[in-house]
Here is the input.
Amino acid sequence: MRSVDVMTAASRPHVGGDPLFSDNLFRFGDVDGTGSNALLQHPLAVAALPDGRVAVADSYNHKVRCVLLLHVYILCIVHMCM
Here is the structure.
C-alpha cells in the first residue's frame, strides 16, 4: 500500500510490498506488522476512517485490515469465516 503526493507525483510505501524490488507484485500474504513486514493478500478497497486510520478490504483473506499510517502498522480488525 502506497500513498502519492499529487503535487510532486512522488510515492511513499506504507505497508506490504518488497523492500528490495518495488516492482515485485508477487509478495503477498496475511501478516500483521510494520512496513514491508506486513502483508496483504488481495486488497480491493480502502476507506478513510474518521480517526485517520485506513480500512482495507483484504479479499482473499476474508478480512478487513486497518492501517495506522502514523505508525506504518497494519492489523486485522474483522475476519470473516467462510
About this structure: The mean pLDDT is 82.
